Amino acid sequence: MRPVAPITELHPQYPLEEQPACRESQPFMEIDRLSLHYGEKPAFQDVTLAIAKGCITALVGPSGCGKTSFLTCLNRLTDLITGCRVSGQITIEALEVLAPHTDVIRLRRRIGMIFQKPNPFPLTIRRNLEFPLREHGIRDRTQLAQMIETALREVGLWDEVKDRLDSPALALSGGQQQRLCIARALVLSPEMLLMDEPCSALDPLSSGVVEDLIVRLRGRYTILIVTHNLAQARRIADDVAFFWIHHGAGRLIEAGTVTQIFEEPRDPLTAAYVGGMRG
Amino acid sequence: MAESMKKRLNMCEGLAFVLVWGTAALVTATFCWLLGDLVWHGLSHVSWTFLTAPPENAGRRGGIGPILVSTALILGVCLAVALPIGIGTAVLLAEFTSDHSLFGRVTRRSLDVLAGVPSIVFGLFGNAFFCKTLGLGFSILSGGLTLACMVLPILIRSTEEGFRAVPTSYRLSAAALGLSRTTTLIHLVLPAAVPGLLVGLVLGVGRAIAETAALIFTSGYVDRMPESLLDSGRALSIHIFDLSMNVSGGDANAYASALVLVVLLLVINSTVSRLTAYGLQRKIMTV
Ligand SMILES: Nc1ncnc2c1ncn2[C@@H]1O[C@H](COP(=O)(O)OP(=O)(O)O)[C@@H](O)[C@H]1O
Ligand SMILES: [Mg+2]
């Protein structure tokens, strides 16, 4: 198992135009015949998918086809849901994500998650970032301050909040809260980000800002984003995976590069969906 | 057609208005009348001497000094026992037990039944168990422990509600950041559950401080200044009961004591809600 990069190692800051390409190495994560049941009811079944390292993979499909459930398997958040059963295999490099002995705390530090509804803690802006850092063992004041600034700059929030770091995070606007949540994930230096419809609770303007931010993160993080917005998937994704409900359970119908899915879909269902006729 | 509909709607609204405000006015008026009655009859007898002096002539004259001390001690014992057990059980029920598990269901059901048990039953139980079986006799300790048994169900259930009211999204987002369950509990869930805990505390203390039936068999009614927790001590509510029922000519002091009791309750109530507001603000600012 590859050791987790020390949290203190700051990200290399790539200038925008020379982002590292996303399709050079082997996949970051491989998912093999993954299924999830809530009690007896399947949420999705038999999903096999590889997530390319450093790329943005968009997960599209109608409501209730198990996209959110799928994301929560990948960082084992499913452990918190009673009556939820996951089978199949998820591997990150040599790490077996679903193995019982896997250290979920380390796993979740490698895989950050952004939720549909912005959910900063009811603390100050500064404490929202400081609290997870402290819990992961960083105590030095100057180092904390610096990491917080870096993360806030990365999400373009620094100039907006630098004078009120000690005011409540819940007083921020929805878009700012969502960017704070992204900063809170980034400050732990994850390798992958899971984003569950991060723009859908935001107004169009904030949604655009968050979308631009996600594009800027390409290359440095492996991103898996659920979106309802096909136009958005087309604008930002490198790869697209299309889910559909089949006999009451979600299925992966087709996955491929964004051009392949949108221009030459192999499955008629995909063709109809991206053509805007269904879903 | 549309006109008559509008009229009917207006009438409905008027009726609702009268009902809502009428009820509010009735409740407030009852409270004011009660308080006014107490103040009218009792205020002239309340003085510093009354609050500190020992009762004389079975309480007809003198004050309530030792009685206040006993009441405070009984309440202290009650809280010292009930708070840790109550919070612990609430955490266990809300955070570590699933809604459908047998343990959770049985415990919750038992607590709900216990919360409705008349206090005289607690008094008899306390007398049998703490005074006799454990040999604590008629004492402040027995009284406090009995009260603790009595307020625990209320305290646990409202604290548990406080925990359940904390949005799941906090727990999920904390877990997604790799924070452990304990950290999440202590730093995020517990502070957010404090309002529920304080509601339980106010209800519990309110019930405890005004309790008569459960104490008469356990802490007794000796009105001397207690020297230790194993001494018998008379609580304020028992004093009021005794003065108004058993002592002829004790009415004036009964009124004065009742006024003190009500003022105490009001003070506790407002202090706790003030603390809640202050605590929450501090939590946001500094933690
Ligand atoms: N905690 C849960 N318990 C039981 N059923 C759930 C739970 N979460 C989601 N489901 C069910 O699983 C299915 C997939 O839901 P979800 O993953 O939220 O889909 P999506 O995000 O694609 O809309 C839905 O039918 C939903 O009702
Ligand atoms: Mg969803």
Question: Overview of this structure, please?
Answer:
The complex is a heterodimer of chains A (279) and B (287). Chain A has 279 residues and is α/β, with parallel strands linked by helices. Chain A contains 10 helices and 10 strands. In chain A, helix 4 (141-154) crosses helix 6 (174-186). Chain B is mainly alpha-helical and 287 residues long. Chain B folds into 2 domains: 2-45; 48-286, MetI-like fold. Chain B has helices spanning 2-42, 48-52, 65-95, 102-115, 119-133, 140-164, 168-176, 181-209, 213-216, 236-245, 251-286; strands at 55-56, 61-62. Chain B has a two-stranded antiparallel sheet with strand order 1-2. The model of chain B has no long low-confidence stretch (mean pLDDT 88). Chain A binds chain B through residues 75, 77, 79-80, 82, 104-109, 112-113, 115, 117, 119, 121-124, 127, 131-132, 135-136, 166, 168, 181, 184-185, 188, and chain B through 98, 167, 169-180, 183, 187-188, 192, 283-285, 287. The complex binds adenosine-5'-diphosphate and magnesium ion (MG). Magnesium ion binds at residues 67-68, 196 of chain A. Adenosine-5'-diphosphate is lined by residues 38, 43, 63-69, 81 of chain A.
